[in-house]
Amino acid sequence: MNWIDKIYIISLKKHEIRRQTIFSDLDSAGFDTSKIEWIDAIDGNELDINQCIQDNTINTTFKDPSGILTKSIYGCAMSHNLVYERFLETNDEEVALVLEDDASVTHTLLRLLLTKGFGYEKFSEELKSTDWDILLMGGQEKRIEHSQSNSFILKPVKRYPTNYAGHSYLITKNGAKKLLESNKTIQFAADTNIYCCDANLYCTPISYFTQKVGTLEKYTHTRLKKEFEMFLMVYEGLGEEVVSSTTFGDYGFTESEFEQLYKTSQVSNKIQLDSINWNSFIAPNGDEIKNWANINLKYE
Questions:
Q1: Can you list the residues of the chain whose pLDDT is less than 70?
Q2: CATH code for the part of the protein at 6-213
Q3: Cα 285 to Cα 178, 197, 198, 237, distances in angstroms
Q4: Per-residue pLDDT tens over the stretch 102-115
Q5: Considering only CA atoms, which of 24, 189, 222, 35 is closest in space to residue 104?
Q6: How far is CA 293 from CA 65, 76, 280, in A?
Q7: CA–centroid distance for 169 within its chain
Q8: CA dihedral of residues 87, 82, 65, 151 (deg, nearest 10)
Q9: What pLDDT sits at residue 215?
Q10: Is 198 exposed, middle or buried (0-12, 13-18, 19+ CB in 10 A)?
Q11: Residue 154, CA distances (Å) to 56, 57, 149, 263 in order
Q12: Percent of the chain scored above 70 by pLDDT?
């Protein structure tokens, strides 16, 4: 991909094996590894939340579709912001690939790169002819949720998908600026910020990068966990009693419906919490977002 001017890889210094793995992965796939710049990630566990609020580094309210908040989420978002700031300081680079160190090249991308046939040509053509700011290169599933279009590869992203991902994406200078404006004072996780910022957001229909959990692709790990822990081991064993209980209500449900039934929140006990509500709010892109958790921090 000659049109990639810079490759930023976000990684904690202690993750030496991850760094070696992703470097080898990119090198074997034919990427120009001389374009790689390592971004030493911010360890969220070392953050002083009170000080971050005073420094205007994080917002007193954190917004999330799943209501999940840990100090590491803050550290990850700050690390992505470091990328945007670094990229905006460059002169000649126009397109950057942003990766987290657990990203991994998929077979789809290998076929695209190694053959450099019709798909590769269309990808290159559409990058030049489409007014894009951010291009997601990988999702939590093999297929990335998108809107229909006549384009062959670049698809408009479904703004609020079932699952969010931020482990692999291309950005232009304008995309970096929009991402930074949206989350300079952290109010979103790095991945949800991509979907909420006021940028032209596109994706590849198939994931070109996946995340690894150990040796497994993340979507394989997640699917196995859901099926074996929740449904096969619990619900199939309990049968009809689950769907007719007073807890769940007198109706059946699918897995996706179950996940959307309740307003939930999980906040690390390392974070002082003031209150949580699910009030609607206006995202940086102008959309009204409903049913996301608004996590209000307690601070001194």
A1: 213-261
A2: 3.90.550
A3: 10, 5, 4, 45
A4: 999 998 898 887 77
A5: 24
A6: 6, 19, 9
A7: 9
A8: 10
A9: 61
A10: middle
A11: 36, 34, 9, 33
A12: 84
